[in-house]
Amino acid sequence: MKLKDEEKHDRLLAAAVTVLAKGGMANFSTTKVARLAGIPQSNLYIYFQNKQALLEAVYRMTVHQQSVAVVAALKEQEPLTTQIVASVRALYQFAIAQPETVTAIQTLLDDIKLKHKWGLKRDDLANQRIQQLLQDGVDQHVLRATDQNFLRYFLARPVFHYADGVRVGLYSDTPEALADLTAMIMGAVLQPDVYRAWYLERD
Amino acid sequence: MKLKDEEKHDRLLAAAVTVLAKGGMANFSTTKVARLAGIPQSNLYIYFQNKQALLEAVYRMTVHQQSVAVVAALKEQEPLTTQIVASVRALYQFAIAQPETVTAIQTLLDDIKLKHKWGLKRDDLANQRIQQLLQDGVDQHVLRATDQNFLRYFLARPVFHYADGVRVGLYSDTPEALADLTAMIMGAVLQPDVYRAWYLERD
To answer: Computed over its alpha carbons, how large is the radius of gyration of chain A?
Structure first.
């Protein structure tokens, strides 16, 4: 077996993100990824056993990048509602800055079967931090006591939709539009009484 | 020009829905659609000028089918909040019954640029009825006064996500899960005071 090369490993992952973002799941192949990365396809298998392993690596990497971007905006001493608003804003900035990464994440999440199979990422500390935030939110009766997948869905997907819409001119990139979107997300995820208090006090 | 044949026209549209649902936008081609429909590709162009025209026809047909399913569940004499809840339930049943149609709609909506260009469907009376419901909701201060695209997004996409999740076993198909989802959607789209009143009085 050839020696692994971290730079090539990362180049393959980056190429995989691009192939996935441009062509979707049905078009994804290790042939295309290797070609885009400029690495012989046979060498790709040194790094990733097969297409599924490559997709799973893309999933872990992109979710980690997204989690890191969100966690950087969280301040533990702040109220949970403030942290959730900060996470929406951070996710929006991440989606605007990294459109291919976010498209790849959405493509992978849409293939719910895969996500279901892959499950949680125990070694992803940033992602763990977000899971803990959600769990704390439920335990403290700030977030609704429902399936955590529902909470994660409402906290992320509308933000990606808004960023996509800004990119093509469907939405305007204004503080007012982001504030509207944030209020809708908070209405969806917060306990009704907590939402009301937050809504009346927000600036 | 050969005589058009309504049955062939519909067969091509149905094949286009399947090709779109299975392979996504990047894989979509008139070659694949003609092959699946069992109609020579040259004949496809009798019905649809080009790929874009075929995609637009798919968009109009699937959105119309979705609109008809929703409108059938609306009772004009009922309060707007009751009608909105009924629309969520109807959309869920539609998504469970017509998974390919709903996947095709989502694929087309994700290509926001296309949707933006196609704009509204003035001759689709069922869709008009839903637009009117949303406009009435905003005018009567029941729905939030925000971009109607935000309202439509929150009213439909989480329902499709839930139906997809039920199909692969991520979510359970229970009245409780659908009630949770409905409450989250209502929290997102209703004016905060209207939401509070609805939430306290719901059965």
So the answer is: 19
Residues of B in contact with A199 (CB under 8 A): 192
How large is the ipTM? 0.92
Buried b (16+ CB within 10 A) or exposed e, B168-183: eebbeeeeebbebbbb
Tell me how close the Cα of B166 comes to any Cα of chain A, in angstroms.
10
Q: Report the alpha-carbon angle B37-B166-A162, nearest 5.
A: 80
Measure CB to CB from residue B154 to each of A106, A113, A184 and give the nearest one.
A184
CA–CA separation, A147 vs B184, rounded Å? 11
What are A27-82's pLDDT values in tens digits? Answer: 899 999 999 999 999 999 999 999 999 999 999 999 999 999 999 999 999 999 99
pLDDT tens digits, B150-164: 999 999 999 999 999
In this prediction the pTM is 0.93
Choose among B78, B32, B25, B27: nearest CA to B55: B25
Contact B3, B20 (CB under 8 A): no
Measured distance CA(A181)–CA(A183) in Å, rounded: 5
Chain A residues within an 8 Å CB radius of B171: 147, 149
> And the tokens for A114?
């895969």
